[in-house]
Amino acid sequence: KRIVQVGIVVEDAEQVARQYSELLGVGPWSFLHFKPPHLADCHLHGIPVRDADFGVKAALATLGDLQFELLEPTHGASTHMEFLKMQGAGVHHLSFGGVRDHDQIVSNLENEGIEPESTGVIGGASTFTYLATQDELGTIWELGKGKPGEKSSLKPYGRYPPSEIMESA
User: Quick check: 13 and 31 in contact, CB under 8 A?
Assistant: First the structure.
């Protein structure tokens, strides 16, 4: 296993992406909006989120082998909104990305008393699982699981800098 992503909750994903680009040269950035209909079967602390009624804007960029994901909760109940309200902006999660033994890892951790904090399906093609590992490991850990043969319905709505050519996801 290896960490492939750092998820950072921010108040304005596009603005912080511009700052990363201008101050540190990180980019280009792709902007996505995780919201219905691109979210389904979502749960927060084991409770279904009605019609996946929340939204999160994201800015994604890669630096070496590590993806930065800036997450701006826009509305509704989500792990990102809880984090922003309780702690302000900061590192929300570390992600292993898609793992083949996703279900086994989740089951093993549940046996150890670590429950999923938030789960759902993005773009009809992949499952995300945020594990409530804050007390034991200092931050949330994320695992993903792809649906074989499925292509995501989620597409970027913009990029920064705007002149950069976006690669297809």
Answer: yes
CA 123 – CA 127 distance, rounded (Å): 9
pTM of the model: 0.92
Which tokens go with 54? Answer: 């929340």
In angstroms, how far is the first alpha carbon of the chain from the final one? 22
Bridge partners, 4 (sequence order): none
Tokens encoding 63: 């630096």
Hey, is 86 helix, strand or coil? helix
**Could you report the per-residue pLDDT of 35-83, keeping only the tens digit for each?**
988 988 999 999 999 876 889 999 999 999 999 999 999 999 999 999 9
The answer to whether 48 and 42 have CB atoms below 8 angstroms apart is yes
* 76 contacts 2 by C-beta, under 8 angstroms: no
Question: Are the beta carbons of 8 and 67 closer than 8 angstroms?
Answer: no
The answer to whether the beta carbons of residues 116 and 129 sit under 8 Å apart is: yes
**Residues paired with residue 130 on neighbouring β-strands, in sequence order:** 118, 142
153 within 8 A of 125, measured Cβ to Cβ: yes
Q: How many CB atoms lie within 10 A of CB 88?
A: 10
Q: Kindly compute the dihedral angle of the four CA atoms of residues 74, 76, 78, 83, in this order, to the nearest 10 degrees.
A: 60
Model confidence pLDDT, tens digit, residues 123-155: 999 999 999 999 999 999 999 999 888 899 999
